[in-house]
Amino acid sequence: MRFHFKTSYDHDIRLFPDRWTLSVYGALLVLMLVLPWIIDSFYLGEVTNVLIWAVAGLGLMLLTGQTGQVSLGHSAFMALGCYSCVIMMENGVPILLALPLAGVLTGVIGAIIALPALRLHGVYLAIFTLALAILADDVIVILSPWTGGVNGKFAPEIWIFGIEINRWANPASWYFLALGTAVVVTLLYRNLLRAPLGRAFAAVRDSEISAQAMGVDVARTKTLAFGLSCAFAGLGGALLGLFAGAFNNETFNFLISIQLLMMIIIGGLGFIHGAFLGAIVIAFLPQFLSILTDNLGSASIPGLETGVFGMLLIAFILFEPMGLYGRWLKMRTWLELFPFARRDMFRRQKTYLKTERLR
Q: Transmembrane region positions (predicted)?
């Protein structure tokens, strides 16, 4: 067991709690850098898909996991990020500039849209954002001169420093683009949690009344959380559309929002690791089911993927609300404290006030 003796506030907000943790993440980064020479192109493409989903999942995790605001409309912001990035690239903007600009634009629009929803809580906020996801489909069709409508758009050629980023001809290049974006977004997310704004997010999540009593501007905090969340989702949507090669109004339907929500719940709500673990499930489970049905000699079963995802979500909500990463934390703690670990150590505590139970 490792003990962390904290003698100042700076110790509590360090990027890595100790050198061992730093070495573990450093080794993981080295492994990810050499991964294209270890696995074949098919699995490399799947890992790239995982990284793209993780970027979008970090956006929703920031809003739902850290601030406690439920959103079912992030597919609309993913579409906004995708279309804005492609339109800028078609007008000569390089991808290294178009990609962050698309994220910033999506974040600004998301913050503006969040303003009328500041007084909404719980299921009412979820309904509001779900309406955005449903309306996005019609908006894309209406703006067909820019979006291509139902015919959609094809992703333009991507060149970075003279290297073509092509999914089929050079899958490793796409992998490194997704990996670089995921690392940057993860570092931004982690440093945001260490900042006062990140502590304000947690205060609003646990109790808005208590946060107000401590001097937190709840309206401003919610707006910033929604804007930053949409910015990350826009980056993920831009990468998803470019990686797919072609997209239209049906690519970013509201089912994408449902998948994002399932992803962060299964992975572990409120944990950065949960976005990546959930992305692994979302990306690899359909492939696993396809391989399983092929080995059993049966044709594809309609609704199998949706049914399995639904059963997984119900199982995690009932038996492990902290998700995969929460289960790993419990296992690690039990092994570290064995034989002194007790079952009641992991009992869930209610963090809301009585006055907020019906909100």
A: 20-39, 45-63, 95-115, 122-146, 172-189, 224-246, 252-285, 306-325
Helix%, strand%, coil% for the chain, nearest 5: 75, 0, 25
Q: How far apart are CA 357 and CA 144, in angstroms?
A: 44
The C-alpha atoms of residue 248 and residue 351 are separated, in whole angstroms, by 42
Q: Do 221 and 26 form a contact (C-beta atoms < 8 A)?
A: no
Nearest one of 75, 74, 55, 57 to 66, comparing CA atoms? 57
Tens of pLDDT, residue by residue over 287-320, are: 888 877 777 766 667 777 788 888 888 888 888 8
Residues of the domain holding 243:
36-356
Q: How confident is the model at residue 343, as a pLDDT? A: 67
pLDDT in tens, 88-97: 999 989 999 9
**What is the Cα–Cα distance from 173 to 99, expressed in whole angstroms?**
16
Question: Domain for residue 15, yes or no?
Answer: no
Nearest to 69 by CA among 37, 114, 30: 114
The 3-class SS string of 262-276 reads: HHHHHHCCCCHHHHH
Which has the higher per-residue pLDDT, 109 or 124?
Answer: 109
pTM (2 d.p.): 0.90
Domain assignment present for residue 172? The answer is yes
In-domain check, residue 22: no
Q: Which two tokens stand for residue 86?
A: 């492609």
Tell me if the bond preceding 116 is cis, omega within 30° of 0.
Answer: no
Give, as one character, the DSSP assignment of residue 35.
G
The total number of structural domains in the chain stands at: 1
Instruction: Examine residue 281 and state whether it is found in any structural domain, yes or no.
Output: yes
pLDDT of residue 358: 45
In tens, the pLDDT along 12-57 reads 777 888 788 889 999 999 999 999 999 998 899 999 999 999 999 9
